[in-house]
Write a structure and sequence with these properties.
It is a single chain. The chain has one domain. 75% of the residues lie in helices and 0% in strands. The chain is built from seven helices and no strands. α4 packs antiparallel against α7 and α5 packs across α7. The longest helix is centred in the N-terminal third of the chain and has 27 residues. The two termini are 30 Å apart.
């Protein structure tokens, strides 16, 4: 059962993302609250990004484990199916859903979650630029995460939802939230059995 979930969560996420986009643009239209709209777009874009990473064209796990994994560097642990699921579904979907349900009136919380994906998009772009090679997730990171991050920050700032004094806190929360990714990968690593 667990393997079935590991193989299909990203495909289900793609369908969920289409439902979320239909909800935002076809059913709610202009009646949806601004912060609700942006957190739902963020979740939908995350699911589309994960589809690119793990379904089509996929291969992010192999790309990470052969191209980014470095036993002496920052990414000391290879990605496992369990780690992928925890980072993307439990942490990624979970944080977006948590903010939508409990903190959707808090612009700092919404901007933080959007900022984590913005940073993810930047990291995909930097890796692609550095290696001069496509990495799964760079396209959706570039066309969804980076523009949403810039646009939402500008929108929230110009409408007075976030102020200059909030920016250092948002940046701190974005970096702390992003740091949860390698921590989760580490926690879900394959344990070595000692002989």
């Amino acid at each position: 059962m667990v393997n079935l979930i590991y193989r299909n969560w990203a495909k289900a996420g793609f369908l969920f993302s289409l439902l979320i986009l239909a909800y935002v643009y076809l059913f709610q239209k202009s009646s949806i609250a601004l912060l609700d709209k942006y957190i739902l777009l963020n979740l939908s874009f995350l699911m589309l990004h994960q589809f690119e990473e793990y379904v089509y064209p996929g291969t992010f796990k192999d790309y990470f484990n052969t191209g980014l994994y470095n036993p002496l560097g920052f990414f000391r642990n290879k990605l496992t199916d369990k780690g992928i699921f925890w980072v993307n579904v439990i942490f990624g979907w979970g944080m977006n859903i948590f903010v939508f349900i409990f903190l959707s009136t808090n612009p700092l919380a919404v901007m933080t979650i959007i900022g984590i994906l913005f940073l993810n998009g930047i990291m995909h772009f930097i890796v692609t630029f550095k290696t001069r090679y496509y990495n799964p997730g760079v396209v959706t990171g570039a066309i969804f995460f980076i523009p949403l991050g810039i646009y939402s920050f500008n929108k929230f700032y110009t409408e007075g939802l976030i102020k200059q004094i909030d920016i250092p806190f948002i940046l701190l929360y974005v970096f702390l939230g992003s740091f949860m990714i390698p921590i989760t990968i580490y926690a879900c690593r394959e344990k070595r059995v000692r002989a």
